[in-house]
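Recall that a protein's primary structure is simply its ordered list of amino acids. Everything else, from secondary elements to tertiary packing, is in principle encoded there. The following example makes that idea concrete.
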Amino acid sequence: MISVIMINYKGTQDTIEAINSLKHQNFKGNFKIIVVDNCSPDNSFSILKETYIKDPMVDIILSERNGGFAYGNNFGIKYAIENYNPDFFLLINNDTISDPNLLRVFRNFYINNINQNIGILTGQICYFNSPDTIWFAGGKLQRKRAGGIHIGENNLNCDIYNTQKEIDFATGCLMFFHKSLIESIGLLPEEYFMYFEDVDFSWKVINSGRKIIYLPTAKILHKVGRSSNILTSRKNYEQFNKNRSILAKKYLSSLDYINFKLFMYTRNTLKFFKHLIFDKEFINTYRGL
C-alpha cells in the first residue's frame, strides 16, 4: 500500500485539483490520499472534510498547529503508520497535477530494483503554466554552500532531462520512499519550518549510503509558489538565511562553516546594494544570518 501525504494551508482549490488528479491513477495497487490541513486560519479544513467525507480514497486530517512543511508531512506519516501501516510513502505538494502513471512508475521501479539500496525516488517536474519548461529534473547538493540546486530549471524540456540518473538532492515537492527509510534514518527534520528541510533530508539519505534516483517518466506539473506564497517575496531573506545557516552548522566542518558565512555575507551584501541601486529600496538582506 502507498500513503500519499499532502499538506494544505489555505489552498483549498489547489488541493482539490491535486487530489482529483491523483484519484485517476493508472495503478492497480492500494493507495490512500492523506491531506493534512496545517491549521489553516480559514475554513479550508471544513471545506475539504465536507468534500471528501464519503470518499474512501481520501482522509482529511487536521494538525493542531502549523509547525511547518516537515512537521505537517511527519504528522501525516505518523497518521498513516498508525492507521494503515503502508509499505510506501509519496510526499507531494498540494499545488501539483499528477501524471496518471505517477504511482505505477515509482512503485514498479522500486520493486524491480529492490536490491539497489534506494532511498528516495523523485521525478520530472514542469511548470503548470508552461508544461514544456522544466522546474526540476533532478538536483545537486551544494555541500560547501549548504544548499541544493534544481537541474534544468527554466529550460525547455529536451532529451538531456529525460534520462534516468542517480542524484544527491530530491525536492520535497515530490518524494517517494519505502517505510524502511524512515525506520532507519527518521522523519523529516522539523527545525526549518519551510525550505531546506528537503536538502537536509537528502543529505541524510546520502550519508546513510542510500541512493536518490531521478525518474523522468514520473511526471507532475507544479503551480510554483502557490503553496508557499508568503515566502516568495524577494524581500523575505530571513527564512532562507536562517535555514541555510542551520543546515551549514549541522553538516559542515568548522572551517567550511566559516567559509560558508563569508560567502553568505558577501552574497547578501551584493544583493543589498542591488536592491538599493536598482530598486531604490532599503532591504535588510542580512536578517537571519
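The longest strand covers residues 211-222. The mean pLDDT is 94.
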